[in-house]
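Entry 14. Structure prediction run on the chain below.
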Amino acid sequence: MSEVLIVRTGTANLASVAAAVERAGCAARLSDDPGEVAAAARLVLPGVGAFGPVAARLEALGLAGPLARRIADGRPTLAVCLGLQLLAAASEESPGARGLGALPATVTRFAAGLRVPHLGWNRVAAGVGCRFVGDGEAYFANSFKLDAVPEGWRGATAEHGAPFVAALERGAVLACQFHPELSGPWGQRLIERWLARAAEAA
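Output returned:
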């Protein structure tokens, strides 16, 4: 049984992510060891919580550098919810905090007057060229978002007041603002596609 390493971020949806990986026929293992994160054939960066504290924890554990290099190299990595936001340089949620900087962007708050958190099911529309993400319904739980697909990435969008980034793809990297592990059969198939194609790229 092939192994998927899940980053122990300190506050995350670890149990549900591990269960989804195991349903796909892989063994899930948790780690916050920088060497293991750098070397993992397939890795998941989950995320629940606030941008600043989680970014600080990754830096303190020596994980920020290995994670940023994985993303830059397009190595098999799945980032979930806050995990996607942590790829950015900064976030309005935590002024002064530094993200991984893999995306030259700042994560922004939803516009005033919109319900936050953006919680529940929403439609995902895949952009041209997406290899992992297709159109479907996904489960979201976010108060902040990325506004546009960065250059060099493929992406999918959803709408909450205005369009925002639902997912990003580049190489064997898949970053989802939604929770694929909570998105029913559609989300499970997405995880399985990533695992299969990530195995080919590893």
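The chain is about 30% helix and 35% strand.
Filed with the rest of this week's runs.
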